[in-house]
Automatic annotation (TrEMBL):
Molecular function terms from GO: oxidoreductase activity
Protein name according to UniProt: Disulfide-bond oxidoreductase YfcG
Family annotation (InterPro entries): Glutathione-S-Trfase_C-like, Glutathione-S-Trfase_C_sf, Glutathione_S-Trfase, Glutathione_S-Trfase_N, GST_C, Thioredoxin-like_sf
Pfam families: GST_C (PF00043), GST_N (PF02798)
Enzyme Commission number: 1.8.4.-
Domain GST C-terminal: 108-232
The protein's enzyme class: oxidoreductase
Organism name: Achromobacter pulmonis
Residue ranges annotated for the GST N-terminal domain, each copy included: 18-105
């Protein structure tokens, strides 16, 4: 009997290593944020694939942990006070894991909140806007005759890329010299926009030279290369 047995999610995705962080995910731009962070931190974890083809995200077991039916989610057997902690929402998971380890987030209060501000910029801006652009450019919305919704998200995505490009001027990473969870939140979405969504031309990506430079450095990191493939 492990401390995770009382979590219904472990009935559908049994924990073979209940002492490790359990990750429920898929290699999407939101999912890989967590696998990349776990790889960067070198924390032992056990990934579980939540298959959208089988509608796993709507199963009662998954909803018991992630009521918004979205990946990623985690179950940490060693949460606060040594008790298990279940979490959904990638931003909350990034902040939790960085705080738990004291890594990839500045130690000083001002630097910490500045980092969180950029994580929120991704969660409230880049993620939802790029995601809508993907719908109207690559998925079902591409067949809509009325191109105004697509154009709205193209314009908003370009605006957000402009904000990010300005921030990265003269900086190695979003927070300057220090690589943080802000980079891990934002850059998988930029990669997805120009890669999987094929929207590079649409948003005139080459003009965002600082974003392109930092994205190149990001995707070369061993932890990023590995994290992008998890769960297999
Ligand atoms: N704000 C959420 C968004 C998560 C999200 O949108 N996940 C998508 C995959 S990238 C998902 O699980 N979609 C499944 C569905 O909507 O049914 C987060 O950052 O964790």
């Amino acid at each position: 009997m492990s401390s995770l047995d009382s979590f219904a999610i472990t009935r559908k995705w049994p924990a073979r290593h209940p002492d490790r962080i359990q990750l429920y995910s898929l290699p999407t731009p939101n999912g890989v944020k967590v696998s990349i962070l776990l790889e960067e931190l070198g924390l032992p974890y056990e990934p579980h694939r939540v298959s959208f083809d089988s509608q796993d995200q709507f199963s009662p077991e998954f909803l018991s942990l992630s009521p918004n039916n979205k990946i990623p989610a985690i179950l940490d057997p060693n949460g606060p006070d040594g008790k298990p902690l279940a979490l959904f929402e990638s931003g909350a998971i990034l902040v939790y894991l960085a705080s738990k380890t004291g890594q990839l987030i500045p130690a000083d209060t001002a630097g910490r909140f500045e980092t969180l501000q950029w994580v929120m910029f991704q969660m409230g801006g880049i993620g939802p806007m790029f995601g809508q652009l993907g719908f109207f450019h690559k998925f079902a919305g591409k067949d809509y005759e009325d191109k105004r919704p697509r154009d709205r998200y193209v314009a908003e995505s370009k605006r957000l890329l402009g904000v990010l490009d300005k921030r990265l001027e003269g900086r190695d990473w979003v927070m300057g010299e220090q690589y943080t969870i802000a980079d891990i939140a934002i850059l998988p979405w930029v990669r997805n926009l120009v890669g999987f969504y094929g929207a590079g031309d649409l948003v005139e990506f080459p003009q965002f030279k600082n974003v392109a430079r930092v994205l190149e450095a990001f995707v070369a990191r061993p932890a990023v290369i590995k994290g992008l493939t998890i769960p297999a």
